[in-house]
Amino acid sequence: MGEDELRRILEIAEDAIISVDSAERIVLFNRGAEAVFGYSRDELIGQPLNTLIPQRFSGAHSKHLQDFARSPDVARAMGQRSAVVGRRKDGSEFPAEASISKLAIDGKQIFTVILRDVTERHQAAEALRASEHLARGQLDALMHTLDAFARESDPDRLLEHVLRTIIQVSDAHSVCVWDRCEDGGSLDLRAAIASGDTQLSRDTNHPAQRLPAVLARYPAWTELLRTGEHGLLDDLDEPSARMYVGCGAEAVWNRVLDDGDGDPAVLSLKERLRALELRAVLFMPMTVAGRVAGVIGVCFTRKPSLLRDDVELTRALAHQTMLAIHLLRLSQQSRQVAVAAERNRMARDIHDTLAQGFTGVIVQLEAAADARARGLAQESEAHLARAGNLARESLQEARRSVHALRPRRLETGDLCEALRRLMSEVTAGTSIVAELTLEGESRPIPPAWEENVLRIGQEALTNALRHGHAKHVAVRISFSDRELRLHVRDDGSGFDPDRVRDGFGLLGIRERVKEMGGEVRVDSTLGAGTEITVVLPIANVMASGA
Question: Taking the model in full, what pTM does it have?
C-alpha cells in the first residue's frame, strides 16, 4: 500500500487523526479531526499543535511529547498522568481519549495522535452518578420511615416522623394533611407541621384548614380528587395563581385564587399564605382501595423543580402517611391490645415488603457502584434499572399489604415459583448464588400459609444478604404426607441467636410459624453462616380442605 493510499484511508476515518513533525507542526489533519475541532484542514496544516490544546496544558503537553520522542516506546495511551482536554475553534473545551504513536519517515520523526471526543460518555457517567445518588437518598428516606413503623408505638409520633421526613427530603417549608370526610366532598385538617415546629398542629384557625374549601370551586381540584393524580398550586406570590393536575400533555390546569375575584375568602386566604411567604404547594392524594381518602400538601417558599423521581418519592411517603393515619384511627377506635395486634401485623407486613424488597435494591445499587468503578457504564445502568424495578415492586407489595391483598408473586404462580422469582430478582446480575430445591411432590396448602411461607423465605434471604453478606444461599422446600419443611442455609457471617433472638425479622418468622402451629429452628455461628428450618404440620389442613 502506497503512502497516498494510506493518507486517503486516514483522511476518511471517523476518529480524529492528527500528525505533527518534530517541531510540533501539524502535517496531517483528517476529516474526523475537522468534525471534532471545527477547523478545516487548510486552516491547520503547518500550524502548531498547541492551537488545539488549552493554554494551561500546552507546556505540560509539549514536555510529554518530548519525553515520548526520547523513549523506546513506539505507541502509548495519553492521559495516564493527567486528563486529555481538547480546544475547539470556538474556544470550547472537551474531554478526550487519545493515543500517540511515532514513526520515522525519510529520517524525520512523525507523531500521530488518534483522538476521540468522550463528552457524551462523561455526561452519561455523571448522569449515572446523579441517578445513583438520588436512588440512595430516596432509599434512605423510605428506610428511615420504615424503621419508625417497626419501632414507634405512639401513632401521633409516627405521623410526625413521616411528615418531618417529607419536609427534609423535599426541602419544604411545611406539610399539611387533610382527611376526606365520608361525604366525599369536604376535607378536614388532620395535621400541619413546619420545619421549625416541635409538634403537630391541629389548629382549626390554621390557614391550611381553609385551602381545600376555597380550591373546591375550581375544576382542577375536582380532577385531583377524582383521579388521584398529584397537583401543583403555583405562583401564589402572583396576582393570579395556577394549579396543575397530572403532568405532560394530559395535565389539567386552571387559573385560581385571582386577586381580582373580589371574594373575601380568596383574598383572606391569599393574604395569610403570603404572610408565610409561600410560593407553591404540591398536593399528593392518599388513596385507599382506589379511593382518595386524604391529601398531603407540601408547601414551598421557593418555586420547586419537581422531577418525576421527586414526585414518586412524595407519593411513596404519602402512602406511609396514610398508614400512620390508619394506625392513629385504630388507636382512637380500639382497645390498646387490638391496636397493638394490628400495628404489629402492619409493621410486619411492611417489614416483609419494603424492608426486604429494598435489600434487593441495595444489592443492585452496590453492584451498580462496583460496575461504575470498573468503567462498565452499560452494566451499571442495568443494575440501576433493576434497582428501580425492585423498588417499584416493593412499594406495590406494601400497598397490597395495607389492603390485605395476596402477594403479587403468588397470583401468577405457586409457592415454589414465587420463591424462585423472588431469589432471581434480588440477585440478578450479581455474583450471589441463590438456589431453590424442591423435594417431594408439591401439595396445595391454604393461601394464608403460602403467603406466610413466602414471607419467611423472603426474610431469611434478606437476612442472609443484608446482615450476613452471604455469597451463596440454598433454599429447600420438602413435602411429605404430614409436613412441609422449609430449609434456608447461607454462607454468610452468621450471628449469635441468643443475642438477636428478639430481632424484628426473626420475631416475625416465629410469629408466622406459631400462627400455623409449626416449629422453627435457627442455627447460626459467627463466621460460619446460618441455617433456618421451619416445619409445618400440613396433614390436618389438607384433610380439612382449609
Answer: 0.42
